[in-house]
Amino acid sequence: MFLRISVLLFSFLCFQTSLAQNAAVRVNKDRLENHILTLATYGQDDQGVTNRVAYSDADLAGRAYVIDLMKNAGLTVHIDFAGNIIGKRAGKDASKKPIAFGSHIDMVPNGGNYDGCVGSMGAIEVIESLNDANITTIHPLEVIIFSDEEGGVFGSRAMAGAINDTALEVQNSTGYSVREGVSRIGGDPDKISQVARTEDELAAFLELHIEQGGTLYNEGVDIGVVEGIVGIKWWNVTFNGFANHAGTTPMDMRQDALLAASKFVIAVNEVVLGYEGKHVGTVGRIMAKPGAPNVIPGEVILSLEIRDLSSEKISQLFKDIKVRGEQIAKEGKVQVSFSPIDATAKPALTAPSIQKAIEATAKELDFSYKYMPSGAGHDAQDMALITPAGMIFVPSKGGISHSPKEFTSAIDMANGTNVLLHTILKLDGELN
Ligand code: HGY
Ligand code: MN
Ligand code: MN
User: Fold this and answer.
1) Which secondary structure element, helix H or strand E, spans residue 79, and what is its range?
2) CB 55, CB 184: distance < 8 Å
3) Cis before residue 373, ω within 30 degrees of 0?
4) In terms of Cα–Cα distance, which of 78, 61, 69, 63 is closest to 35?
5) Is the dihedral of CA 362, 363, 369, 370 positive or negative?
6) Ligand 2 centroid vs 327 CA: distance in angstroms?
7) For residue 116, which atom of ligand 1 is closest to its CA?
8) How large a percentage of the chain has pLDDT more than 70?
9) d(C-alpha 406, C-alpha 211), whole Å
10) pLDDT tens digit string along 223-269?
């Protein structure tokens, strides 16, 4: 009897001690910053600006660095058919579903070193901090570095089973199509459908990310608890006119595709501003053919992007924009056509239970926090289709992002990573 009570008491004390040890663990700020700064050297030019668009040589080199970091942290690493890098760490109970977390390391052209990288290096830092503190979680853990996030959350969409063949033909600024790019990074475009994970495969997904807006930075708030992530739709809009001699064709006889396209750019802005709400619409790319000073442009292809938390709102805005485009084309004696680009991210809400876990963690760690939506797209929005998902935001200086001027301080990155670490530990104790 005495022996049994002693054993019980001993186990209870061990449990309390391990809880106290878990509560005390903190990430290594300097190591995290060092990894961020080293990752930034992959694709860096002489001016110190990094270009690491998905599928570029720089992306390949950056991914190799990240794989090394993951292996050195003791993860068992593999690349799935979509090119996602997945690192696994066993838990105490192999029958439990893994808790997954991660982000992306690819960039937009001329992007910044923090978008995606903070969540990726933060995820690896969580593993290293657990290693340092000798903590084994109950659930297995998975670090996921998603492929080609900036080309329409490709890797996470594949994991959510939302990729069609047309998505493989989308080209990015490297000139590679997704099909070619996926092969370059160790995936297999013909087996993408096998990457899809079922709804009961993961216990949860968490993503740490810079806010990419100025709210946290301007208000001096440490942590953003993300409530939902906007949907994003892209189209190619093509104006076809008639390429003709710019010196001999009178002004009233032209079918100038670029003139019509220019009016369209303004119309997009007017339609978007005509509705109340936080939706946005952008023409971010334009190409005029044949592209010579002495030829009236015969064809213009431009991009159209619309974002909102509501799919209905996106459809309504597109409908109005299309009507305006057709009017402009008619007046300019040109044709217009709209073709969707298969890079759609659906609007997604994060799981309230995970929002609460992030909030409770921020409070325990004594950080100020704020609930907020995300105007940027993220891998978490597709992961939300297959598992309860949550996002942690940290401040981004001046709200600048998709720019080499993007910056998040080492302390803010460490704060967010500590919230990520302790939210994982909290969920590890709470989830089945
Ligand atoms: O474009 C976006 O919103 C994201 O940064 N991929
Ligand atoms: Mn981005
Ligand atoms: Mn990102």
Assistant:
1) strand 76-79
2) yes
3) no
4) 69
5) positive
6) 34
7) 5
8) 96
9) 11
10) 999 999 999 999 999 999 999 999 999 999 999 999 999 999 999 99
Decide: 185 and 176 in contact? Cβ < 8 Å. Answer: no
Residue 88 is encoded by which pair of tokens?
Answer: 């696994």
Alpha-carbon dihedral sign for residues 400, 407, 284, 350: negative
Quick check: 192 and 163 in contact, CB under 8 A?
yes
Q: Which residues pair with 273 in a beta bridge?
A: none
pLDDT (tens digit per residue) in 101-151: 999 999 999 999 999 999 999 999 999 999 999 999 999 999 999 999 999
Residue type, 29: K
For 379-399, give one letter per residue: b (16+ CB within 10 A) or e. Answer: bbbbbbbbbbbbbbbbbbbeb
pLDDT at residue number 55: 98
CA distance 207 to 104: 10
**Residue in the block written with tokens 């993951």:** 70
C-alpha torsion sign, points 33, 37, 38, 40:
positive
CA of 247 to the centre of ligand 2 (A): 43
Does the beta carbon of 116 lie inside 6 Å of ligand 1?
A: no
Sole residue written with tokens 């810079």: 210
Type of residue found at 263 = K
